[in-house]
Amino acid sequence: MPLFEHTARLLAGVGYSTWTGVLNAADFGLAQTRRRAFLIASRTRPALPPEPTHADGGTPTDLFGAGLPPWRTMLDVLGCPPALVVTRGNHTTGGSTFPTTGPSWAVTGRARSWMLKVGNRPSATRRRLDQPAPTLLFGKALNHVSWIDSDGTPVRRLGVEEAAVLQGFPADYPWAGSRTKQFQQIGNAVPPPLATAVLRTVAPTALEVAA
Question: Fewer CB atoms inside 10 Å of the end CB: C or N, the chain?
Fold first, then answer.
């Protein structure tokens, strides 16, 4: 941010309108609370931050217009991936049906749900499926981004397709290279919903043509 602020002052000195600040991707429809610093500059229009499309908990409708929907959650975008389905219970009362390789709300008779854990320390961030993901870590920290159950027991690591969706890409986006390289590409990308929101503030016509 200090570098962006310095650059903004230089750009303002040669005729640019500038804005610097931190944006939370969850405010723009991503199911991840990824915060990133931005520098927006334009010679042709005022440089302003994008208007959020979502809010933590949502906002109510008022005299000035419709409210904002709540942040999207991991469950909203991932759901429960289809896989081998197992039913646990007895033949008279039925039981809980759940996928064995995807997040599930009811694995046993008591409510148990998967959580996403990011980090390998006792204080590592944990988020429930009904929350946005925390900022995803890649590189050397990749092995410490994993699904755990409500008791903290590891289930499996986050998949490439899941990471792509949580970063705002289609699950079948054609990443290239090894698993590590694919995660590197996902992690280095600006989430498309956030990138689109920022670009609309300075190049709305170009985005409309592209759409």
Answer: C
- Judge contact between 70 and 172, C-beta under 8 A: no
- Structure-block tokens of residue 17: 């309108």
Q: In the chain, what are the domain boundaries?
A: 2-72+191-210, 74-158
Q: Identity (one letter) of the amino acid at 57?
A: G
The model scores a pTM over 0.85 = no
pLDDT, tens digit (0-9, with 9 covering 90-100), for 28-72: 999 999 999 999 999 989 999 999 999 999 988 876 777 899 999
DSSP line for 28-86: GT-SB--EEEEEEEESSS---PPPPS-BTT----BTTB--PPBPP-HHHHH------EE
Burial profile 112-127: b = 16 or more Cβ within 10 angstroms, e = fewer? eebbbbbeeeeeebeb
- Which amino acid would we find at residue 186? I
Side chain identity, residue 169: F
